[in-house]
Fold:
Amino acid sequence: MTKRIELPTSGKKSRNTGGGGGRATPPPTPSLNYPCGLVLGNSRDTLDYNEEAFALSIGSLIGDGHLRPEGRLEIEQGELEYTEWKKQQFEKYGLATQTSSISKVPHIRTDKITGEVTKTIGYRFYSRSFFKSFRCFVVQKKPGDPTYQEGKKNKKRKAFPKELFDCFVHPLALAVFYMDDGGAVNNQPYLATGEVPEKEVLLLQKVLETNFRLTTTIRRSKGIAVGLLVKRCDCGKFLDFVEPYVRSVPCMERKLKITRP
Structure:
């Protein structure tokens, strides 16, 4: 039996909007606390605003989450324990149903230079279709993007929109982003930004400074911005934000092995 791991909370409770039998009821009026019109819901049901549910969503959107056309968020992680934890939190806040299952997803990757074949397993589940208003977090690739390929059909990529100034404000969002795409590099917290172009990396850098008072430097590979490294002077502050949440997931505790200044 899977051990349920609880998330640190502020004491607020979220309304359970899971499906059930009986006559459908009209969706409630969403709280005006939702920032930038980013409302968790659809035409049949809407979640009342809850800061932890919203933060969990934002951290997943800018992390490993993949927003699908129908408004579901596809969550895939490389570690089962972390996937189970995240699914528990999505269920807790009504973002996923208990009937949705975690599936194994095999991946085969071939190194273009060496030809070496690597086989890995991912663990995937899907949210409810509550994310249609979050389209600003996905854009079509275009020339200038790090992974754009001229003459080929380019897929969409995740984006760091200006809305982050108003919605990326809660430590849980930062912790989920860190567990998804971060780790310790040179004894400092590092946040990978992947295929996002430098102008959006600079926006994220400004958001972190404005909302969390965290200063960072851009990390580059072959001249391309690939992530943000938290400066040593702010490592302790960063750990204070994320540690209570990261310790909820034992397999993620390795990301806390950073010496405080």
Summary: The chain has one domain: 40-250. Residues 40-250 form a domain with the Endonuclease I-creI fold (CATH 3.10.28.10).
